[in-house]
Fold each of these.
Amino acid sequence: MSVTSPQSDSSSVKDSPRVCIIQDGARRHYIVPMALQQGGLLERIFADWYVKDFSPARWIAKLVSRFDPVTGRRMLDRRREGLDDKRVISNLWLALRLARAKKRFPVKEDYFEWAAARQAEWILRKGFGRSNMLYGFIRNVHPQVWRIARLQGLTTVGDQMIAPARIEIEEYQLQQQRWPGWEKPVPTDALQRVDLIEQMSWEHCDHLTCGSDYVKQGLIDCGVAPERISVIPYAPSGSDLPLIERQLHPDPVLVGFVGAVCLRKGAPYFFEVAKRFDPKRVKFVMVGPVQLDPQRVRQECGPVEIVGSVPRSQVKDWLSRFHIFFFPSTCEGCAGAVLEAMDTGLPIVSTPNSGTIVRHGTDGFIHAYDDIDGFVESIDKLVSDRNFRLNMGLNSRQCIERYDLSVVHQPFEGRHDGC
């Protein structure tokens, strides 16, 4: 990638942190820029597709909605009420170019690498303005952006949103061995390039944040010094999810999942657990895009209802229907789906690899992702005792309430002159 290095006037604001964020899609529903705006630390946001009031992006999304309501709704959801539109720098044509190019890349990792380079060219042309700190998500920000920002005197902070690629590759290969033919294999060289991109990014970042001790340990195992890492459990999306007063005597009890239906998220383990229950007593539902072989899903899902992909705006409706949230993921950062489920007052059954803040025996139950017997026992306890289930759900909600937006912006304060 050939780019020029724009000049930054960040030296004029060295007395206080002014953060530039490179926003990846609607990641975490724009919780980081919202938190920094609340703390008076937000300078600008780069988001290639963002729907501002009366913008061409809004008109295009509404037009798409007439022909494809799901895609149109997803496009319209790329905004956040309360976020200062004037801080957002978007690029409609780049967004459309990136969307059209996806079909050219059969391997998603190749696409993400190409897209990050195109985004970097745009960002570096625009420059960082008055910012003296750059924040973005490792893997989705091109290493060249971190490098140039640092050369211009900005402090660089990268969020490791999932366990390092080296750890993810190990888990991925293990799941491929356990469940052959369930998912199209990703070429090994593509995964290795992700590992290389991470290493280059870590080199140019002054500090790293992550959502869980699980990810921090992965970073340490990959050679990152512990003092360079801050664990900031991801706050809930801030989407004002209400505490749901659920039915006292549901028939059947609904055990739900939200996320991609794939090996990494533990779909086969979800299926195996569901098969242990009477569907008249307990119903299992998975909401999210299906990334497994369709024929394999039909053969193996058993009594599980596969809803498929839904717009983000409909997720809370599904969460309100669930009575238990089951998330047997094999590798995460700090799963946002679990946090949102907790926010609505759901008891959680999950894994250490999900990076969860769930307290075992208080907000739910934590088991190794392949502990089928443990999952079955815990879900059965929640199904059998409604008061126990409701109390655990209330504990989940109270746990989440400890994490407000200040949790997100506090680590940036006082770190603009070096980490």
Note: The longest strand covers residues 155-160.
Amino acid sequence: MIRLEHVSIEFGRRKIVSDFNLAVGKGQLVCLMGESGCGKTSVLRALLGFVPVSSGRIWMGGDELSLHTVHHIRQITAYVPQELALPSEWVSEMVRLPFELKANQHIRFEEEKLFQYWDMLGLSRDLYQSKVCRISGGQRQRIMLAAAAMLDKDILLIDEPTSALDSDSSGRVFRFFSLLKEQGKTILAVTHDRKFASGCDRTVNM
């Protein structure tokens, strides 16, 4: 479902990623690990065409990434960045933003389904009426993980899903990912969490 062959990424004269190869099969949970600044997030963004590669080739869902395929690739992929700077005052607005993107406008937002996912992730339904500025970083991460799962994409790209969570909440996130895997979803996650990584199908060090 995800394949990179000899991919390099440069910013200016600085090479962030050099000759990187990766293959992730359908229904797998694979994590990228490595020191800060080694290019893990850049790889996630390159998979969606947000960051250009200086060399190499990328395939997502069987299609090679190009100007002609990038829209379709974004339609089959959900991306949750580590830093969520979303222009919403209320959580009820924030969770609907992904459904307003061009690639997702055909998908119906279902409030009850959102709450079912929140229950799995240990989130109170009262948060729906909260202001975004009053919720924690960990709550925000899990709220948007649930919204991403609701999009029902074949591929999920997740940046540091447990960085702001305690061990109990991290366990809930891992079990949630396991459920998505059972549904055939392919997940590529960037993490520094070794406990989370130990449960993944494979860990790739960059």
Note: The chain has one domain: 2-205.
Amino acid sequence: MKRQVFYSFHFKNDVMRVSQIRNIGALEDNKPVSDNDWEEVKRKGDDSIRRWIDDNMNYRSCVIVMIGEETANRKWVKYEIKKAWKEKRGLLGIYIHNLKDPNTGKCAKGKNPFDSIIINNDGKVLADVVKCYNPNPSDPYNDIKNNLEQWVEEAIEIIDHYKN
């Protein structure tokens, strides 16, 4: 079944890598944001960014965090992760450091962005629940292409069965 997903990522560093994944076509209605559109949203400030995220996450069954070198430190990625968890959307991470950006090549593997988000009073973090996938370094694109739908379904199943 094709799902509508929301991609969370560090725009400046990883937009070209994420575009490769969006072009796979396994998932519905995932139009890329252009540089100009994103810059326009950013110029209007935090409230505008928050509204854009909220509007674009509506009706999405899963949030896929595309993990590049600096993703774990990004304010809006953290906001998107927390929002997805609170709203009980499927949530997963995919390391994209081995996908080549035509301008910069590969990047270093980033930290797991779910490690720093505490989800209960016992100190449990999202990384204890949310899966992060590290595609085969010799062919990351095809590994993602061949497994993306399954990973999304697993993430939705995990959130459906998770009890806080």
Note: Residues 140-161 form the longest helix (22 residues).
Amino acid sequence: MKIFNLFLTLLFALFAIVQLNDPDPWGWTAMYSFVAIVSGFAAFGRYHQYLIYLGIGVVLIWMATLLPDFINWIKIGMPTITGSMKAETKYVELTREFLGLLLCGLALGWHWKGARRAKAIA
């Protein structure tokens, strides 16, 4: 579990760094950095449940704002969102953002489960 949490730390730190050249870097850099930090603490058995809850809450609210656009992307037949790095249409950018938040949510869910397991053992 420690190795996987270290992997998540590195992965989300890299995600945060890549966001620095994005047109709207601050929210994304903060979100990915937050997940990297939570993952780093988890790698050493340090779980901060309230921070995990806060992160999950932010992710869910942010995803809710993007959900209509994600559903619209599905309705139009899920055209490729990987054709180029530049988001040429609105649905490409918003779908990528939704999926990025989904990754954050999955990682934080993993840490929530780890925190519950650690609490049960203690």
Note: The chain has a mean pLDDT of 91.
